[in-house]
Amino acid sequence: MNSHEPLFRFLADLVAIPSMNPMGRTHIGVGYNEETIADYVTDVLRQSGVDVKTYEVTPHRPNVVAYVDSGAGQTVLLEAHLDTVHAENMTIEPFHPRIADGRLYGRGACDAKASLACFLHTVCMFANKSSGLKYNIVVAAVSDEEYGFTGARCAIDNGLNAEFGIVGEPTQLRIVRAHKGVLRWRVVTKGTAAHSAYPDRGDNAIYTMGIVLSRLQAHGAELIQRPKHPQLGTPTLNVGVIEGGQAVNIVPDRCWIEIDRRTLPEETEDGILKSVESALRNVAKYEFEKPHISIGGIDVSPENPFVQRLASVIETINGECVVETAQYATDAGVYNNSGIPTVVFGPGDIAQAHTATEFVETDQVIRCSEILLQFLTK
Ligand SMILES: [Zn+2]
Fold it and tell me: What is the CATH number of domain 2-180+297-376?
């Protein structure tokens, strides 16, 4: 593993720096946020001579963007997220990476620090000898993928652009060229509070929500009867959270639910909200809050020349290449929406992501790095 020593040093260092996503909470402790890991990534890139910029997404939560300009006509984006889910229930040491039995263990090992390590390793190799490159490279290490996708959006708002993108997530070195998107928002019903001994003097917001819920259930059932996208199936709708009322002896004046609507690549946020509104027609006193998660689906053509080149390199190194589709959403939705055809590809298995014993197979990390090297060079 000697020639891969820098690659695994990056990966071990990244896992050893906690970068847990606060997941919307405002009170956070040690080990949360991406600032420390972003500083590490910036230092590593600068020391290798790579041109780096950082952008603050929200306070203490930056993106790091690195550029290697080889003078080529086309640019490839390599993007991975800096954040991980929390580590509270892990049964291994989350931040003391350990290699055993061909696996590297730790929080974020597969989701998605292995991809990030491969991207850093690759871009550092070309810092001072970009002449062999077929493309210019942009590496984006972004914040907040696990919750709000705000890092990817910030990267686009700051002018990130490329002809093709690879979002590094654990796909077992398969190419995910299509996946669903997700739209999440709250619906609020409002009523009038009263003493529960006189319910007729009030207006029960929970009862109104009951009507909303039965309409949404019917709408969700109708969605899965729609004609299927050939790879992704139908859109879905789930109400996952409900909260309302202050006490059992008060007629509740407010109730809210949170909707998770999984979307197909061709659907728009506006169109989806309108169709849910139409399912709720004639229900009085409900309001939509602005969606707090809105990420499009992706559907990159298997004929896309970058996809074909990547697939043929994977086939050379792995002996086969699987191009597939997935139900989950990633940052790739943000890049595709802004016109950068972007697929998902990286070492590790999504089945390991977020688990109590998260690991990545070291052999896949090595092969990912070799695939990137071949893909990016002439
Ligand atoms: Zn991830």
Answer: 3.40.630.10
